[in-house]
């Protein structure tokens, strides 16, 4: 409909990215000054739009518009003194352009680094550029291409075919610096965009009045039909708040669900479909219209973090894809509803399979236990070493390991995930974890590295081999945890006594010794002596030898202090009953599967910090039934 009234304005595009309206060479460059974060923005003229995604990790008040901070002597038009930038992805769209060939010119100037010999001159910004889905600039470095900061450079693309919409995509691939001169100085940056046609623009009237009227009326009818179809699908089924618009604009690898879809899948959140209860809300089983079974986490809308933080967390989680991680299908923000949709795990959690009631336990043979251990290790190795962002889970335990229909292990609960900033490993604001699984340096001093997950994995590995809970099995009064018993048996040279008696003789003694020794190696009190998770995978597969150290439980003051903390933790557990403890077997099994939390005073801090999750705790915390 709009194509009928073509003028020169519909065959060209001039945008001052990140700056006010200005003129250059007789062309009027439109203003682009909104400073939103991950969002979608359309220009007042409706001739162009942009979307950005990503957040600057660790930066509370980030700006998405850059200015000439160092007063660089920038030659050229005024629009080089400002720019738009984004943490991950920045897309500009030219809307309703006349079909044909266009010349696209992109204007750049690096204005966020200094041109002196100070620290602020050491930054490197590297990103890629794609036009119409085709990469045209790879590993583009503005400063290097322009031979310095404050130097202007243009990149021309003389023949870009456009049918109606032009897409210019600038995106960061994780290269270059990200904290020079300040945290968050990285990602794509652009000063201006110029788009002009390679064809002659006809400004005369080309169609008879009657034909124009007929086409306009037909277009209106088609538009109304499209709007009606979108309304039927629920696109206009309610008030879209700002957070929902931002979620739609994010370039997530997940789906966006409507509330009506989730209500239909869960029978309007029928209590009969409730399969668990986490700290921030219940979990429901649901069936989508196509027959897919899902798990729906209904988060509290009263979360302090709010919907914006929810969107940011979803953006992080959606980037994590691995066979041994619970798959995120999508999410829903509508009204006051915050929902996360995950794959449904038929065999519940590993804790229930090993420590649940007699009618709930699974008969897990030795080969399956080996596969489960290997799967957990591979999932953690991915989080620590293989994903683009290094992630420390912080709460590895049997309740956070789910089992699919084939008893394959998948790690859940990324709400406790901590972006592992290598320069800031001492977490002084909050300790999040579960008693009996936390590494001593994390529990006592709040010192967090990926080796804390290695320690927790060692505890879980010991539980899988023995079939006993680390926090609830006490063969003797002086033993606080299952791990204490393992130390004693190691000193006695009788580690095979740890193997689950339910296995009988149907297991490999050699493999059992290897797994137990890996467990003891992972739970070494010194984090520097624990292996990486990739090494653990190789050890479990027999590709690397295992030599577990002999741990003397009373040979160091640090270990003595840790034992005192263990006693304190156990006392805390006895006052907060765990639904799978020995003393609670007679309780109502309809209660959700949960673990005790612990409050720990971090040395050097006046406040107590409590084991709580972040925005997405217990994402699929399942019920014993």
From TrEMBL:
It comes from the Eukaryota. It is an enzyme of class 2 (transferase). GO terms for cellular component: membrane. Its EC number is 2.7.11.1. The chain crosses the membrane at residues 207-231. It holds the Pfam family PK_Tyr_Ser-Thr. Residues 573-593 have a biased composition (Polar residues). The keyword Oxidoreductase does not apply. Its main location: membrane. This is non-specific serine/threonine protein kinase. It comes from Solanum lycopersicum (Tomato).
């Amino acid at each position: 409909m709009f194509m009928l009234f073509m003028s020169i304005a519909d065959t060209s595009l001039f945008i001052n990215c990140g700056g006010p309206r200005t003129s250059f060479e007789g062309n009027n460059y439109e203003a682009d000054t909104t400073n939103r974060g991950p969002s979608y923005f359309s220009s007042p003229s409706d001739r162009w739009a942009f979307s950005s995604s990503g957040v600057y990790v660790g930066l509370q008040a980030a700006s998405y518009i850059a200015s000439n901070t160092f007063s660089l002597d920038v030659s050229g038009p005024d629009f080089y003194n400002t720019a738009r930038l984004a943490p991950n992805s920045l897309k500009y769209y030219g809307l309703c352009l006349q079909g044909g060939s266009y010349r696209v010119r992109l204007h750049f100037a690096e204005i966020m680094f200094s041109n002196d010999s100070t620290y602020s001159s050491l930054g490197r910004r590297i990103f890629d550029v794609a036009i119409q889905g085709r990469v045209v600039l790879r590993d583009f470095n503005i400063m290097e291409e322009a031979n310095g900061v404050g130097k202007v450079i243009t990149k021309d693309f003389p023949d870009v075919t456009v049918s109606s919409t032009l897409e210019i995509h600038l995106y960061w691939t994780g290269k270059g610096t990200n904290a020079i001169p300040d945290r968050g100085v990285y990602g794509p940056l652009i000063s201006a965009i110029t788009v002009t046609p390679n064809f002659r623009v006809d400004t005369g009237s080309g169609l008879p009045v009657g034909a124009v009227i007929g086409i306009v009326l037909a277009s209106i009818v088609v538009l109304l039909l499209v709007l009606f179809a979108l309304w039927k699908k629920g696109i206009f089924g309610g008030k879209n708040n700002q957070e929902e618009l931002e979620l739609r604009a994010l370039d997530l690898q997940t789906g966006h669900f409507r509330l009506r879809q989730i209500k239909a899948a869960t029978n309007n959140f029928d209590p009969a479909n409730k399969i668990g209860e986490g700290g921030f809300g219940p979990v429901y089983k649901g069936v989508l219209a196509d027959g897919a079974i899902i798990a729906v986490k209904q988060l509290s809308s009263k979360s302090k973090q709010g919907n914006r933080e929810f969107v940011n967390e979803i953006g992080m989680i959606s980037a994590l894809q691995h066979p041994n991680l619970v798959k995120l299908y999508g999410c829903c923000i509508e009204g006051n509803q915050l929902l996360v949709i995950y794959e449904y795990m038929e065999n519940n959690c590993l804790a229930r399979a090993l420590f649940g009631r007699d009618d709930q336990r699974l008969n897990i043979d030795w080969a399956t236990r080996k596969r489960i251990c290997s799967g957990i290790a591979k999932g953690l190795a991915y989080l620590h070493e293989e994903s683009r962002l290094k992630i420390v889970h912080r709460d590895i335990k049997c309740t956070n390991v789910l089992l699919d229909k084939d008893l394959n292990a998948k790690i859940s609960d990324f709400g406790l995930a901590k972006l592992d900033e290598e320069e800031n490993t001492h977490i002084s604001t909050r300790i999040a974890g579960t008693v009996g699984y936390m590494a001593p340096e994390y529990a006592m001093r709040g010192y967090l590295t990926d080796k804390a997950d290695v320690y927790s994995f060692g505890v879980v590995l010991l539980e899988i081999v023995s079939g006993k809970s680390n926090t609830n099995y006490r063969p003797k009064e002086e033993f606080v945890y299952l791990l204490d018993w393992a130390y004693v048996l190691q000193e006695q040279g009788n580690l095979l006594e740890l193997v689950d008696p339910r296995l009988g003789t149907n297991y490999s003694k050699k493999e059992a010794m290897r797994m137990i020794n890996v467990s003891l190696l992972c739970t070494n009190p010194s984090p520097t002596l624990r292996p990486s998770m990739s090494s653990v995978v190789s050890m479990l597969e027999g590709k690397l030898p295992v030599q577990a150290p002999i741990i003397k439980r009373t040979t160091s003051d640090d270990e003595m202090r840790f034992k005192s903390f263990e006693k304190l933790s156990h006392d805390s557990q006895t006052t907060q009953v765990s639904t799978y403890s020995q003393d609670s077997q007679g309780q109502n099994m309809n209660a959700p599967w949960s673990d005790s939390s612990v409050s720990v005073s971090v040395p050097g801090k006046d406040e107590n910090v409590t084991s709580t999750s972040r925005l997405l705790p217990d994402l699929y915390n399942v019920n014993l039934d």
